[in-house]
What does this fold into?
Amino acid sequence: MPAPHKTKQKRGLWSSRLGFIMASAGSAVGLGNIWKFPYITGMHGGGAFVLFFIFCIVTVGLPIMIAEMILGRHTRKDPVGAFRAVRGGCWGVVGWLGVIAGFVILSYYSVVAGWAVDYLWLSIRGTFSAAHASGVPELFSGLLASDWSQLFWQAVFMGMTVFIVLGGVSAGLERANRIMMPVLFLILVILAVKGLFSPGGKQALHFLFHPDWSRLDPPAMLEAMGHAFFSLSLGMGAMLTYGSYADEKTSIPGVAITVSIMDTCVALLSGLAIFPIVFTFGMQPSAGPGLVFKTLPIIFSQMPGGSVIAVLFFLLLVFAALTSGISLLEVVVAYYCDEKKWERKKATLIMGLLIFLLGVPSALSNNLLKDLQLIGGRNFLDSIDLIATNYLLPLGGLLIALFTGWVLTTGLAKGELEKGAVRIHFFPVWYFIIKYVSPVLVAIVFLHTIGLF
Ligand code: PFF
It folds into this structure.
């Protein structure tokens, strides 16, 4: 194993612990929290689903996040290099799975993020004001019907992502996150407080936090666990890559706990911002994936001050998507910089372009390519989302947990975990969870998704 300090000089490092926290939270907080969490919570009946999701974050998400960050910092490498450095042999495949997942996820993530950029632009132009209310319900189907619009906004989003990643670890990723994450929190808190004081606020609180355990069936439990992976950016080496830019003084459990809490809070705040509006206007919480893009704009156009709230909301969505998008691209770029010794500029531009091209079929999947159905009648975008989220991430997470618990030596894991100003000494607890609990729970999810359980 190469000594960490030899490679340290050539690679970037976060300038501070706060920068590391903001960047990791930026990766975790994304479309998964603001777009997906509210609608799947709505579809699975609220309270009990929310509590089980939090249980998954604690028993599976947090331990695996710590494992990824430890592996990254110990090896100071990209995901492929990290696994090879510790054990070699076929374990490099786990890193490869991560690089492929980053490639694939960003290809369609950028399409959905492109819709958010389009909606931000529309809201800035005042489209969601009372004067234009009659045209709002058709906006989403109008966007999906235009291949060119989707390609254009996808390209805009990828352009912004590439621009930030070109800047490098500290000047690009860290600076962008440091600016965007606090703004994102602020906007969300404003929206949630406003929501709570609206007529539907009480009903939303009850819906989100009052568990009706009869609604927590096995599919809901499995969905909650899969979403914990996606939401915390786990199972594909994004947190491993970010951990590889952390300095030796930082306590990894402290960062991982903070990031997990922030991610969960943003998901809950999104629920508190969205459900009061839904209940105030008598809409259904179970409206599905269209909740953010179809239901909310209609409501914005009907409520007092809605056009300003619309701008804030879509700005929030774009920031969240961007800070996650850059972490997806960074996994791929880190591989080419570390393993193939490419310049960051070359890796970022070439990979950004290739990912954009891979995303083209997703952008066309609602119109030109709508007959191209891959899995169970799903269009291209939904099919690769399914492959990546339900197959690649759980598989990656399972292998990372097994690697950390059974391949990495105990001494090495303990040493890395206890670096920095550790206040809580919880190595035995974490080690037991990562060795036994997390793999078993993830295996259950994974076997379910491939239909064996
Ligand atoms: N965590 C992001 C979200 O919730 O939108 C999505 C994501 C980003 C998944 C980065 C995986 C990843 F590596």
The chain has one domain: 8-449.
